[in-house]
Specification:
637 residues; alpha+beta; Rossmann fold; Jelly Rolls; 6-stranded antiparallel β-sheet
Length: 637
């Protein structure tokens, strides 16, 4: 619908304090996938480029009923007006129907139309755009100038389709007689806001430029299309909006010419096998969940041959690879401490409490409660200061079944804090950091013992020093001993198929490299492709390497990597990097709904939906990996 520039939001200077709970999450060096972020940026750059070339193609104008919303809006009402919102709901429904029918359209703003609208022949003109059909959605009133243009358009032979509630007012004044004449005009169509009825009308009065159908000949509503023209080239961008379903689609284009596919992932342009039938170009393609394709038809070049679409048979020899994998953890493992004992000043130690609640209590104790949640730059600008000065002490504990070779304490703005581990003072003067340059990394390797370990932290409270969860990172495994308690332990020697969360890495943030080998009886034959498939793998992306090859990224479905050029007869070495996110360390870790579809700052401290059970998401090769030998055979021409 016209968005052709991708602007990632947001990029944080630092995640310290409340910033880590801001959403959307930070797209920066904090993320485990940051080194691969160019892959998605390049995809969007190519998509933005291709969807900006030439001119958008549509012959349908949908008038936008904002004037009906203005006419029904009551500023003194305390509740949303049902009539007002019904216009929005009907418009959104109409938009969905048109997009699902693959009928591109423009929205017509009445103010713009009043300045640039006119009628030429049987076309409704708005500046440089020309339309054969005007759709009037559910509405109450329209500008007098808009109504006059509709009348002239109808008399010139143009088609107007009224969908849903028909208008009664002009410039918000009753004029039912004028509307009656318009609605009875022979070039007017009236229909309810329903898919089937609207489709029948549009098919009767306007030829399609594209049809995208399933095996039953029904337009696939989940696939959206954007059509542009540049010189002799027609550009079609298709996107599958379904996140779980794959579609085999038959696509019919109204133009004839040479068809190429432009790969937005790697920038390659390739010829596409298509046919011509009844003056249309026809091809078949697969659209995977949340996937996209770009087809370009050059009408200046010879069109596809006039013949039926060929049929193909795909045969796959599937071999399941290892149930257990050698592995390398490419980042330090993580352990989250999000509750501890605390005291203010010389008071007695208070029982263990969640650290975010301790933070709230500290703000209250210092007279800053009314400033909770306000942006730090505002507090600095207002020169906000505590009304009470006191020392804040935290006492956290963790248990370890081993003495790790390397283990570090990670604390935000570490140099401000005084730290003791098992009663021994530890220097916080460090240039080392982890995840974020404001997260100090303190080596406590020689102070950690087998059994219970106590970490004490203290500083003179000030609002600009974050009181946040405490983290351990290092070379260790993490074992779950109850729904709410974990201990440090030895790392596993192998990883099994399934989530690594249950195998020693519940809070891990980083990349895990899985390694195995497989044998091929022969070199790939002509017409054969060799692939690695990752059924139900969980990660932000996956990197495949075979026999030391360059990386082959898998960023979206199908979760497959073509390794035909990299394999050899006999033994082959395979590695698969699974890249995670910050989710299982920074949360939300305690929302009873688990993995939330929508996340905001409140999701991390939602008392109503709180659970002490850690809500973690799976990462890893959930059902392992498969070696695929794929043969494609043409059955007919």
């Amino acid at each position: 619908m016209g968005i052709t520039f991708f602007c990632p939001h947001l990029v944080l200077y630092t995640m310290k304090g409340d910033a880590k709970r801001d959403y959307p999450p930070t797209f920066s060096y904090h993320q485990p996938y940051w080194e691969y972020f160019k892959l998605i940026n390049d995809y969007f750059a190519r998509a933005s480029y291709i969807c900006s070339q030439g001119k958008f193609q549509t012959e349908i104008l949908v008038l936008h009923p904002i004037s009906s919303a203005w006419a029904t809006f009551n500023p003194s009402s305390e509740k949303p007006d049902p009539e007002l919102w019904s216009y929005n709901e009907e418009l959104v429904k109409l938009q969905g129907i048109l997009l699902g029918l693959h009928r591109d359209f423009d929205y017509g703003d009445e103010i713009i139309i009043s300045r640039h609208g006119c009628i030429e022949g049987d076309e409704f003109i708005v500046k440089e755009s020309r339309y054969k059909i005007v759709i009037v959605p559910s509405s109450l009133t329209w500008f007098k100038q808009t109504v006059s243009l509709l009348e002239r358009f109808l008399e010139a032979g143009g088609k107007v389709v009224f969908v849903g509630e028909t208008p009664r007012l002009i410039d918000a004044e009753p004029d039912e007689e004028r509307w009656r004449k318009i609605l009875s005009h022979p070039n007017v169509e009236k229909t309810e806001n329903e898919r089937k009825a609207l489709a029948e009308i549009l098919d009767r009065i306007l030829e399609r430029t594209i049809s995208i159908t399933d095996e039953n000949g029904r337009e696939i509503e989940d696939i959206l299309v954007h059509h542009r023209a540049e010189g002799s080239c027609h550009i079609y961008f298709l996107a599958n909006t379904n996140r779980t379903k794959t579609y085999e689609a038959t696509i019919k284009f109204s133009q004839k010419g040479k068809v190429t596919e432009w790969n937005l992932f790697n920038g390659e342009v390739s010829s596409v096998e298509a046919v011509t039938h009844e003056e249309k170009t026809i091809l078949k393609t697969m659209l995977y969940p949340a996937g996209s394709r770009v087809f370009v038809i050059d009408t200046s070049k010879p069109s596809a041959p006039e013949r039926p679409l060929p049929t193909w048979r795909i045969e796959e020899d599937v071999k399941k690879l290892s149930d257990e994998w050698r592995f390398k953890r490419l980042h330090l493992n993580s352990f989250v401490i999000d509750s501890c004992e605390y005291c203010f000043g010389g008071e007695e130690w208070k029982p263990k409490m969640l650290i975010w609640r301790i933070r709230r209590e500290a703000w209250r104790a210092s007279g800053l409660e009314k400033f909770l949640g306000i942006q730090p730059w505002v507090l600095k600008e207002k020169k906000v200061k505590s009304s009470r000065r006191f020392e804040l002490k935290l006492r956290a504990s963790f248990r370890s079944e081993v003495k790790p070779g390397r283990i570090f304490l990670v604390v935000e703005k570490a140099s401000i804090w005084r730290v003791k581990v098992n009663g021994i003072s530890v220097s916080t003067d460090t240039s080392e950091w982890h995840w974020d340059k404001q997260f100090g990394k303190i080596d406590i390797s020689k102070h950690v013992i087998i059994g219970k370990n106590i970490v004490e932290l203290s500083f003179i409270f000030n609002w600009d020093v974050p009181v946040e969860d405490i983290y351990l990172v290092g070379d260790f495994g993490v074992k779950k001993i109850s729904e709410t308690e974990y201990v440090l332990t030895r790392e596993p020697k192998m990883l099994k198929n399934g989530s690594w969360v249950e195998q020693g890495y519940p809070f891990y943030v980083g990349t895990m490299r899985y390694e195995t080998s497989f044998n091929l009886d022969s070199e790939p034959q002509p017409g054969e492709r060799v692939l690695i498939r990752l059924p139900e793998a969980k990660g932000t992306l996956f990197i495949v390497r075979v026999n030391g090859s360059d990386q082959i990224p898998i960023c979206w479905r199908p979760l497959e990597a073509d390794i035909t050029k990299n394999v050899r007869k006999g033994r082959n070495e395979l590695s698969i990097d699974v890249v995670s996110s910050l989710r299982n360390t920074f949360g939300p870790l305690h929302h009873k709904a688990g993995d939330l579809h929508w996340v905001g700052p409140f999701s991390f401290i939602d008392e109503k939906n709180w659970t002490d059970v850690y809500q973690l998401v799976p990462y890893g090769l959930i059902k392992g990996a498969e070696l695929i030998i794929r043969k494609t055979k043409r059955l007919s021409i």
